[in-house]
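Weekly modeling sync, notes
Attendees: S.R. (lead), two postdocs, one rotation student

Agenda item 3: backlog of single-chain predictions. S.R. asked that every request posted to the team notebook include the full sequence so nobody has to chase files. The rotation student volunteered to paste the first one in as an example of the format we agreed on. Action items at the bottom.

Example entry:
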Amino acid sequence: AVVSTQSGHYGRVITSSNHSSQKYFQYYDYSNKNVHKFVNELSTSLSSEPPNNFSEFFSTFNVQLEKACKLDQPKSSKRTVKNNPWITQGLITSIDKKHELYSEWKKAEKRKCLSC
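Predicted structure, as returned to the notebook:
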């Protein structure tokens, strides 16, 4: 298996491939909500304890980034920025919601048929 790591605007992504399939794992979510939370927490942290040097700043930066943007459980997907640059986090959220609503509708339809 070949493993490579990519990072960028859409988060850190690790790809693992073999001859049959590829899986992509996303460990960070840089949504607007999470970035806003990160900026606020970093600002508060730097105001209360200003760093004495760059190492302290970098450490504080990383701690706040981990708290605000790291996913509790990595996401696995075949959708990647490289393969599908038009698939944004907003579209993925909408697609997931559509699937959720469809599942609920199918369950309601089955209950309706059972009560007939």
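Discussion: group reviewed the output briefly. The radius of gyration is 20 Å.
Action items: rotation student to repeat for the remaining queue; S.R. to check formatting next week.
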